[in-house]
Amino acid sequence: MATVSAVLVSASILGAVAIHDDSPTEQQQQQDLLVSNSQSSRVENLRFVRTLSSPNAHVRRPLRGIDLANQNLSGLQLPSANLVDAQLMGAFLVGVYLTDADLTHATLAGANASGVNLYNASMYGTNLAGVDFSGAYMRHANLTHSDLSGAILIGADLFEADLTGVNLDGACWDDSTRWPTDFGAIHAPRSC
Predict the structure, then answer these.
(1) Fewer CB in a 10 Å sphere around the end CB: N or C, the chain?
(2) Where are the domains of the chain?
(3) Does residue 176 contact residue 158 with C-beta atoms inside 8 Å?
(4) What Pfam families has UniProt attached to this entry (predicted)?
(5) pLDDT attached to residue 167
(6) What Rg, from alpha-carbon coordinates, does the chain have?
(7) What is the largest CA-CA distance in the chain?
(8) Distance in angstroms (rounded) separating the CA atoms of residues 123 and 146
(9) Which helix (H) or strand (E) holds 9?
(10) What is the reported pLDDT for 142?
């Protein structure tokens, strides 16, 4: 009987150790599950945004705080979209139509936004670090206090945009970049 008790106690201790063992494999599995859930959420968000794509500026687009990091929104038409605090890091925004959109305090760092239409968009305090804005149409956009460090502005049209307090450290542009009249003469081209 003592042997059976000793075996049961040993089994209980081993079981308890196994239950409380947070091995790197379990932690990695939990992290992988979180990443998978996050990616699934982004894909669902993208499906939702695609249903709102229309040239009609009167369609409500309540997308405040949406997470679309690393998603392909290429060619979508989202005029007047509310993208305040949206997460668009690394997103593919080529040719997206975002006229009159509100991207205040959004994060687009590292996104590809070449050819994007941001006419009259509000991007106050937006993180635009490292964004490729080649050929982007950004006339009359409000970029006040935005971070454009490392951005590519080759051929971008920023005519009459508000660039008050903008960070352009490491950004690059050429002679085809169009600046606001009171801003462009100060900045000679910077190659990428």
Answers:
(1) N
(2) 52-192
(3) no
(4) Pentapeptide (PF00805)
(5) 95
(6) 24
(7) 94
(8) 7
(9) helix 2-19
(10) 98
Helices (H) and strands (E) in the chain, counts: 2, 0
Which residue type is seen at 48? Answer: F
Instruction: Find, among 81, 80, 83, 56, the residue nearest to 68 by Cα.
Output: 83
- What pLDDT digit, counting tens, does each position of 126-178 carry? 999 999 999 999 999 999 999 999 999 999 999 999 999 999 999 999 999 99
150-157's contacts with Cβ under 8 Å and 24+ in sequence apart are: 152/192, 153/177, 154/192
- The Cα–Cα gap between 79 and 19 comes to 53
The secondary structure of residue 123, as a DSSP letter, is -
Tally of CB atoms within 10 A around 26: 10
Q: What is the 3-state secondary structure (H, E, C) of 12-45?
A: HHHHHHHHCCCCHHHHHHHHHHHHHHHHHHHHHH
Give the chain's residues under pLDDT 50: 1, 3-21, 33-35
Instruction: Select from 1.20.1070.10, 2.160.20.80, 3.30.470.20, 3.30.1330.10 the CATH code of 52-192.
Output: 2.160.20.80
Token output for 41: 């959420």
